[in-house]
């Protein structure tokens, strides 16, 4: 395993452990406040088991929060760096623990995304009230550099390989990343997240199916069709800009 991958895995384990400790602290605080009986060990254990399930989704949830927050920043709803990605992710997990009784047995990640959208929008509203001004929603999302066609071709080559993984840090250039993001935005949310969990996060089909609450066969179909769709979308961008 490359050193970079080992470092990334180690960092992810640390993030999971930190989040788990925070959620456990939340459970203990509920007991102190009298929201749970200290004698009801089984309930506390169930909540800790649910917390462990939650933190298994930290990597895809962090990516989802980053994309959603980036979209609002690009629209001018909040300035860059006004909101902390880490704090938003933490808030989503705490909120999920508070609403554990609403969590589905299947499709937990889909449920987490709904919570994340609400947390992000609430945080943006609060931040906008704090800074007391409106920003334009007409700012360009991205600009392209001189070498962008070559980067598009390289992205298409990766997508053409049905066994290729898309590294999460696919930053050939900022322009290439922007193009890939634009292509991904053309996919429905479910398809985009299934594709990214499978090809970027390395989750197997069974794990993705459980997280989204869909059949394994549907996961396989979504990944295959999404890969072809993204490659074609990038080709269209290439020819459109070249012309």
From TrEMBL:
Pfam families: Sigma70_r4_2. Residues 179-221 form the RNA polymerase sigma factor 70 region 4 type domain. One of its GO terms (biological process) is DNA-templated transcription initiation. Keywords: DNA-binding, Sigma factor, Transcription, Transcription regulation. Coiled coil: none annotated. The keyword DNA-binding applies. The keyword ATP-binding does not apply. One of its GO terms (molecular function) is DNA binding. Belongs to the sigma-70 factor family. ECF subfamily. This is Sigma-70 family RNA polymerase sigma factor.
